[in-house]
Amino acid sequence: MYLCAENQFFTLHSSLFTKDMSRFNHKHKLSPKAYLYRILFSLIAIAILVAFMPHGNTSAYHYQKGEPWDDEALIAQDSFPILKSPEQIAQEQDSLKQFYEPYFQQDEDALERQLTALKQYFGSTQGQSIPHYFFPHLSEKLRHIYSVGILSGESAALFDKEQPKQVRLYSGNESDVRQFSQLFTEKAAYEYLVHEDDSVRYNHSQLHGLDLTKFVQPNLAYDNEKSMQQRAEVDGRLVRTKGVVLQGQKIVDKGQIIDDELVNTLRSWEHHLREHKLTAKERLSRLGGRAVYAAILVVLLLMYFQQFRSDYLDSLRTVLLIMSLFLFFPIVTYIIIGHMWASVYLVPYCVLPIMLRIFLDSRTAFVTHVLSVLASAVVLTQPFTFIVTQIVAGLVAIYSLRELSQRSELFRAAVLVTLATLVTYLCMEFVRGTSDVQGISRWPYIYLVVAGVLSMLAYLLLIPIERIFGFTSIVTLVELQNVNNPLLRRLSEQANGTFNHSMQVANLAAEVADKLGGKVQLVRTGALYHDIGKLENAVFFTENQAGQKNPHDTLSYEQSAQIIIQHVENGLKLADKYKLPSAVKDFIATHHGKSLTKYFYIKAQQELPLNGAGRFAAFTYPGPKPQTLEQAILMMADGVEAASRSLTEYTEESISALVEKIVSAQVADGSFDECAITFREIAEAKEVLCTRLRTIYHTRIQYPEG
Q1: Which of 318, 319, 240, 315 is nearest to 272 (CA)?
Q2: Rounded Cα gap, residues 535 and 539, in angstroms
Q3: Are 419 and 305 in the same domain?
Q4: For the purposes of burial, counting CB atoms within 10 Å of the CB of 307, is it exposed (0-12), middle (13-18) or buried (19 or more)?
Q5: Quick check: 265 and 251 in contact, CB under 8 A?
Q6: How far apart are CA 162 and CA 170, in angstroms?
Q7: Which of 32, 186, 273, 555 lies at a CB distance of 3.0 to 4.6 Å from 57, suitable for a disulfide?
Q8: Per-residue pLDDT at 9 exceeds 50
Q9: Contact predicate 579/540, CB 8 Å
């Protein structure tokens, strides 16, 4: 029996022998449109990287006063002046304020106009009521007021907050310096005019009720142009530098404690880098270097897909997810470095491999993570430690997180990633020559711990990624496996036989997927829902009849076959109604592939043999055939579990023969022609199915009598 099975195994459909050794690398001729899309995506990715890279000179130095310098020794690439500290400059500017002299233009004719107006007033009818001796008294006061100067309200408001020590009054080519505090405002001038002078015995109460404000008019006009020019001359006396660092001179050594002087020198170097104007040749060379570097990384990513995962390139949503994550972290890095906001070690780069590991696979997660880290490191001054630390973090994240079915798994992964990055960074410190632990800055380690905490936010990204890119996370799959889910509960109540069958298939398929390295949670969920279409006509399926009269007895074989086949379409309709993910709907559509409803077809042929294509199609499932390893596993588990119920006795031999018969028949029918599964995997699947069925049916060794 086994020899026959082996011979049959090696005479199967020839397409299985021509499959590429790589499960996911489907070699096929691309259309011009497909080539155009791939080139367009590559150019867009390159353009985005180049556009977000900081322009001009930037610095990624992060240091704290009182802490040791964490990077390698910093050597000046150019000569640059050492700037004074902001506090010192502010102090010197305060000391220069005493030399500020705002300019005011003096109206020389203002006094004569007001004296004439006052004389006319005393000669008028209103002025006759005032004793004549007030005229020389008020005239003398007006002469004093206008000789000192009267400021307008607007001019006085300019100096409310900061009053100069002295001002310069000019008229024509002559100028004079006055104390600002001596100048009159309009209000002060009026009060001086009506104030009763004790040295002169005049009754000023006689002036009350008179409108003397018309004799108090500003005669000083603020000259902004001359004032700003004078202020600029004073500011020009301020020397903002206090030394020079020559090209090739060491700015700071590794482990050196950052004091005030070093902080000032480092800020001066950063200012020099920002202010240094690039020549046209330098700008062109930098732009070219960035473009070529970005192109190398994007092409390497594209080559990986072309060589190992060409199936991803056929899916737009997969390409968009990978490219979005690949570009996101370099863009964040460029923004942080360009604005010097914080340390890049605060960014949880390991979120990228976590997301791709959950939604895609480990190898893609690692390659994309490495290339993204390389794209990020190009703007750093000390990239080596960064690259090593983040690659280790990505590897640990991938190794520690196979499936995210519980929050605790992400917490464990975050803890392991944090510990790994801390140890790696510390090792790099010693590799670079640090011998004294006290000479190590604590801030990078604080940043790495914060990044580890932020990596746990990856759990919150699952739902947005599902909604935006159409993927199905492990969390969603686990939630769908809950038997209290409305659709599964309905299946258990209205088609209990199908529900039990689905549960058994789910267990079988999950064990096979685990053995073959497939997606266990995906195949388990797909198995639970693959037969939900039987809810529409549950009694027409044997497992739900439970001793009832078989309704197929009153139907033709073609009608019966159509009812059986219809459960696939009905299942897809229910899946849409209950909003099941597309990944689960694929299992419903493919679990029978394009196979025959053999029982009714054979019965129909026995009754009335016909070979027409139309009649053959009436007994054939619409398909498609399984497209993935997981879908192929479900087809095998479904067929074997259903057939196992028809066995009259459960022995190792009968179960092995059944599994061999069912799976080999599926292979012979070409059911697995369109999915990536190998002969070895089929053989391993058979072994797991046999072992599992023996456990389910408690097979025993038959002992000889006697």
Answers
A1: 240
A2: 9
A3: yes
A4: exposed
A5: yes
A6: 22
A7: 273
A8: no
A9: no
Cα torsion for 681, 394, 319, 363, to the nearest 10°? -20
288 and 403 in a single domain? The answer is yes
Supply the DSSP string of 506-570, one letter for each residue.
Answer: HHHHHHHHHHHT--HHHHHHHHHHTTGGGGTTGGGSGGGTTT---GGGGS-HHHHHHHHHHHHHH
Q: Distance (Å, rounded) from C-alpha 240 to C-alpha 262?
A: 17
- The domain of 654 spans 484-697
**What's the pLDDT at 21?**
39
C-alpha to C-alpha distance for 475 and 404, rounded to whole angstroms: 7
Whether 318 and 460 share a structural domain = yes
Among the listed residues 500, 540, 545, the one whose alpha carbon sits nearest the alpha carbon of residue 644: 500
User: Which alpha helices (DSSP H) does 276-315 contain, by range?
Assistant: 280-308, 310-313
Amino acid (one-letter) located at 49: L
For the whole prediction, is pTM greater than 0.90? no
Residues sharing a CB contact under 8 Å with residue 412, sequence separation 6 or more, in sequence order: 400
Residue 176 backbone dihedrals phi, psi, to 5 degrees: -145, 145
**Residue indicated by tokens 């944090």:** 418
Per-residue pLDDT tens digits for 636-654: 999 999 888 888 888 888 8
The structure tokens listed for 693 are 């069925």
- Secondary structure of residue 212 in the 3-state scheme: coil
Domain total of the chain: 3
pLDDT in the model for residue 539: 86
In a domain, 195, yes or no: yes
83, 282, 371 from 271: Cα distances, Å? 9, 19, 31
Residue 670 zone, left/alpha/beta (φ > 0; ψ -120 to 50; rest): left
Q: Is residue 257 part of a domain?
A: no
The edge-to-edge listing of strands for the beta sheet with 184-185 is 174-179, 166-171, 103-106, 220-223, 150-151, 184-185
Q: What Å distances lie between residue 251 and 208, 244, 273, CA to CA?
A: 75, 11, 14
For residue 415, pLDDT over 60 is answered with yes
CA distance 458 to 235: 54
- Domain CATH number, residue 609: 1.10.3210
> For residue 370, how many other CB atoms are within 10 A of its CB?
19
- Sequence-distant (6+) residues with CB within 8 A of 374 are 297, 387
Pairing of strands 250-252, 150-151: unpaired
Whether the ω angle into residue 486 lies within 30 degrees of 0, i.e. cis, is no
- Token code pair at residue 160: 């409310």
Q: Is 637 exposed, middle or buried (0-12, 13-18, 19+ CB in 10 A)?
A: buried
CA distance 115 to 118: 5
Residues 524 and 433 in one domain: no
Is 80 a domain residue? no
What angle, rounded to 10 degrees, do the helices at 316-339 and 362-377 form?
30
Rg (CA), the chain: 44
Instruction: Give the span between the Cα atoms of 684 and 679, in whole angstroms.
Output: 9
